[in-house]
Mechanosensitive ion channel (Roseibium porphyridii), 769 residues
Amino acid sequence: MMRILGNILVVILGLMVLGAPLALAQDAPSQEASEQASQTSDVQKANEALIKVLNDPASREALIKLLKDSTSEEGAGTDSNAQTGEGQATGQTASGDDESTGRGFVIRVGEYTKAIADEIGVVVDRSVHSLRGLLLIFSGEIPIKWDRAQDVLIQVVVVLGSAYLAFWAGQAVARLIYPKLSVRARYGGGLTRSFILVLTSIIDGLTVAIGLGVGYLVALLAYGGFQAGVSLQESLALNAFFITGMANVSLRFVFAPQRPELRLLPFSNASADYWYVKLRYYMFWVNYGVFLAVPVANIAVSFVLGNALRFLIVLIGMLYLMVLIARNRLNVREGTRTYAQTLQSGLAQSALTNLGNLWHVGAYGYIIAIFLVWVTRPFDATTIILRATGLSIITIMAGMAISLVMTRAIKGGIRIPSELREKLPALQSRLNAFVPRLLKLIRTIVFFGTILLLFDIWGLLSVIDWVYSETGARLVSSYGAAFMVLIVAFVVWLAVMSWVDLRLQSRAGYIVTARERTLFQLFRNAFTVVIIVMAILLSLSEIGVDIGPLIAGAGVVGLAISFGAQTLVKDIITGAFIQIENAINEGDVVTVAGITGTVEGITVRSVRMRDLDGTTHIIPFSSVDMVSNFMRGFSYHVALIGVSYDTDITYAKEAMAEAFRRLNETDFKSSIFGDLEMHGVTNFGASSIDIRARIKTRPGDQWSVGRAYNEFVKQVFDERDIEIPFPQVTYHAATPPFATDTAKAKEKVKTGSQKSKPVDDAPADDGEH
């Protein structure tokens, strides 16, 4: 009976082993093959035990009975669970949903705690089991095949030696090329440096590939021959060589030792060399230990020694990295803080500072996670770690390279060739107004995308599966289409603006008129509004927003505005017809709504003018009933000169003609069309006779020409003593009546007093009468 129960127990264990890969497959389908391969021997043993049980009638009956009992127990458990569920349903009505929710939370916490404890127990058990194998080796219970080990060691040394000789020869040739590339990188931009860094990494990878090829060739020629092929230990050695070489290429890409001009990260030369050397030691230890020493130990000695070596190699490597992190924790933190102060963005400074404070926590977690994977899943740990670590390194390097290139472009701005900048002077400013903001958005997307990809690589989130799902594909395609709509809209807007700039540039044989400049500027503003509205509506439509109600609402709002803002509509319509009729252009001197000034700007609904005093006036087109433009075709300066009534008119006309001749001898001659138009006497004024003449000028020059002509008229009139009269007033004092009577009385009194004087007071007669 004990034998039967023992066989049944083996069968049950075999069923559990068979079911374990299935259970794991539900959570991690990608690991199904590796789990089944690692447990093949146990499954075979369970199958053999099951065959024995089924062949023995007594054992078969005992197995059937045991399965029936387990089935009945499961049914009872199901009934009890159903009853418990009904009780819970009844209890929920009495005590509410909170109690069941709390119990469920407590149960989940307990399950998680139990799972963690089980994992710790598995790790401890595997560690003790691995170390116990060394005791068996040292005690002599497991013999060592020294002859086999010596042959394997010689083959490995020969193959690796030839591979490294070829690799060093390739590196010697590559060092002849690197100085020229370094000079170009030193004087190039960020994109050039990134390209040269990638190129040098490809060259380093090629030297590793050359060493690998030479190693395989030596292995074929020296040992197996082309027919027998390469032995397992030789293949393992060359695989370790290739993995280690590519790991060193990755380290050179990140730290760029002895090549500071190619370094993307802000490391000093000493720091870069330090981390490159220390991590290179770790790469040699782990790669050659796990990929070469452990398999060779399995072949030459036993799997017990290989398992023990794997555990020791991983443990020593983990301790080495932890000590390295502990020694450099403060240095890295200070370095990140110093570099964060050079950044312009406050968010970037805070993020980098926090990263420097917590980087060692993430590093410790990564190392412990790798150690747990090695201990708990030794058969497929290499695949998991290499895949996750390699993809993580590639993802981080790609994200860093893209972010650094974008950061340099954001700081330095977009620069276009000088020839194109001369033709389109506003193109560079437009690009720098939009592209850096777009690059900042893309850099943020790259950052979060890198984090999500790392989560997916380590199995924390299924980002790739979600992207390929129906919901993820729909969201990615819709938002990607919306983003592309915005990009295409910007490209179209930029092309149209550049075309307008070209049309507004004067060139040989073509002069841009003020009307063209005004119309193109209005077209530029209108097109900008149209492209913005269309881009926003199409982007909303791509992400699933129904823009029909928006368009209908805009129509209703537009109709309401048209009724409620009739003045605004009148402004726009009047302004449109004014532009069509070419009544006002930028730079014209006009009189609008009683204000005269120079037009500085025209919009759809108003005109902005600056008068002679420097005051700016913004006049809506609805208040414009007449436009007087002084800048159309040609202009006239009308000279109205007043002379005194006793002046010879012919003489005065000749003086005005002389003043015109002197004016023609100055620089104003190019602004004058034709001769002086003499109109003659036009008015008899109160104090002068007005003589009018007219000078035809270019539009806009009539005021300067008129001021200069007036100066010459004054000079000639002064030379010829021609009086330019000015208004004069003669005042007459009026005497009141009472003042007249008093004056007469005084006169009479004076006359009477003179008559009553003595005779001898009169003058003596001189006898001349």
Observations:
- The longest helix spans residues 97-139.
- Residues 399 and 446 are 6 Å apart (CA to CA).
- The radius of gyration is 51 Å.
